[in-house]
Write a structure and sequence with these properties.
By secondary structure, this protein is α+β, with helices and mostly antiparallel strands. About 30% of the residues lie in helices and about 20% in strands. The chain has one domain. The protein has 7 helices and 9 strands, in the order ββαααββββαβααβαβ. The chain has a 5-stranded antiparallel sheet with strand order 6-5-4-3-7, sandwiched between helices. It has a two-stranded antiparallel sheet with strand order 1-2. The longest helix is centred in the N-terminal third of the chain and has 18 residues.
């Protein structure tokens, strides 16, 4: 999983979709959406004991669409009850580069000396006790400035599909991912979201369904965000650098941040 700074994989403007073969591939945000009212009506009928086919007839929906909604409702229910789960979490090596974490020497990063550009990929798979498979969410987080740039899930999956997904998500990195405690991942994702919000940036819209998967917030993050404590913006292909820089100037002043903005030299014209 990679994002705004140019690595291959899941980008800040794409999501993961499943192919008919069970593999995962990057896809654009163009799948049909089920609105909140439909979700509510399916949940209500399901709670009354109706089968998926009965719900489909009641709501004039395709049975396959109803089955998809029921799976999503189950995944959201499992995510909301995160405290009862066992969590397997993974981060890319280099996740801590530029960050300060004085209170947790146990949160080790074997790639701490490798520049990550402030982009962290986190995968959280929660396993219900005595149940096969897992519910998984993936987060792409700019820990230097913008917070959550993309998110996927919650999605119920079996162990084989989870291994494929994990391989795909971290395929853009030079080293395999490292296991991490859920407390660290929660501090990274929720803390970066709060940090970015203080600078004037909202998380990606797909973050909200995945928030509960991290478990409840336990207070201020133990991590100091920004590169060496200072907001640092590194532009990505799906960003609006002018808007980001205006927002940063308004939040911290013209000298309160660092930035690197990529330029498309193919658009330059020579005049004379």
């Amino acid at each position: 999983m990679s994002g705004g700074h140019g690595r291959p994989g899941l980008s800040a403007g794409s999501t993961l979709t499943r192919t008919t073969s069970g593999l995962v591939r990057p896809g654009r945000y163009n799948s049909p959406m089920i609105d909140a009212e439909t979700m509510h009506r399916v949940r209500e009928l399901r709670d009354r004991g109706l089968t998926p086919n009965e719900i489909a007839r009641n709501l004039a929906m395709r049975p396959a669409a109803v089955a998809d909604v029921i799976r999503r409702l189950a995944a959201e229910r499992d995510a909301a009850n995160a405290a009862a789960d066992l969590a397997d979490c993974w981060l890319n090596t280099g996740w801590s580069a530029g960050l300060t974490i004085p209170e947790h020497p146990d949160w080790r990063d074997p790639g701490a000396d490798h520049a990550s550009g402030g982009l962290v990929t986190a995968l959280v798979a929660r396993r219900r006790r005595h149940r096969r498979g897992a519910t998984v969410c993936v987060y792409l987080v700019d820990v230097y400035c913008l917070g959550v740039k993309n998110a996927m899930g919650p999605d119920n999956t079996n162990d084989q599909a989870l291994r494929r997904l994990t391989d795909h998500v971290f395929s853009g990195y030079n080293a395999p991912p490292v296991p991490a405690p859920i407390e660290l991942v929660r501090d990274l994702v929720l803390g970066a979201t709060e940090y970015a919000n203080g600078l004037g940036f909202d998380p990606h819209p797909d973050f909200e369904p995945t928030r509960a998967h991290l478990g409840p917030s336990t207070g201020p993050s133990a991590i100091t965000f920004g590169h060496d404590g200072k907001p640092t913006y590194i532009s990505g292909p799906y960003d609006d650098p002018s808007r980001v820089l205006r927002t940063l100037r308004h939040a911290v002043g013209p000298n309160g941040f660092h930035y690197t903005v990529a330029h498309d030299f193919s658009e330059l014209r020579v005049t004379g």
